[in-house]
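The freezer alarm interrupted the setup, so I double-checked each line after restarting. Inputs confirmed:
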Amino acid sequence: MEALARLVAAAEPVITADDQKAAAAASSAGFAYGLAAIGPGIGIGYLVGKSVEAMARQPEAAGMVRTTMFLGIAFTEALALIGFVVFILIGL
Amino acid sequence: MVHDPADVAATAMTTALPGDAPEVKVTRDMVRRGLIVAPVLILVCGFVWGIDGAYSSAYGIALVLVNFALAAAIVAGTARISLGLMMGGVLFGYLIRLGLILLAVLLVKDAGWISLPALGATIIVTHLGLLVWEMKYVALSLAHPGLKPARQ
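Predicted 3D structure, all chains:
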């Protein structure tokens, strides 16, 4: 029995402080990226919803609304990209 | 013009916008400007992070330009069908494009030539820089949606 317990103990991987630090960094990076993507997702949804409403109300202004919408999407997406860059810098 | 909220919702789902796509014009102009400033950015990153930084910067610029082009293609392609599809396309397109960028970076993260700080800095600077620069040339008017007309 004692020999079996010794075998089990030997088979268990040794987790060092560096491993724990790397795991913490990876999970923090994942949270940072996920949280950074939620905000712009909500923002883009709101922006596009309002733009669609505006285009449905006034189709003659659709070109102007589409241009504004596209630039808004790109600016909002910059926030997600900043979160992504934080992710690649601390998590990869 | 439609004013009743119920009619607006119904019309929004079915209205199609055939014709010119202003976002394609804007994106084409941004890509052209991106290619103009690319050598400068690559040189700066090469000066700060070495040859790896230069390669990473070129990769980052390509990522940003492809991302803009994909976004414009999704909006232009779906708006020709219906506004409802455009809304879905933009939202799922956002997720898919973020996923593609992640995949593109994961594919090269262990490559010998990659410098992650250079790549990250290039992505943010190019994306925001091109957008801010383009704002000067965008016309938000009924007569010229998209880009301002060229001066005679």
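Quick read of the result. Residues 20-132 of chain B form one domain.
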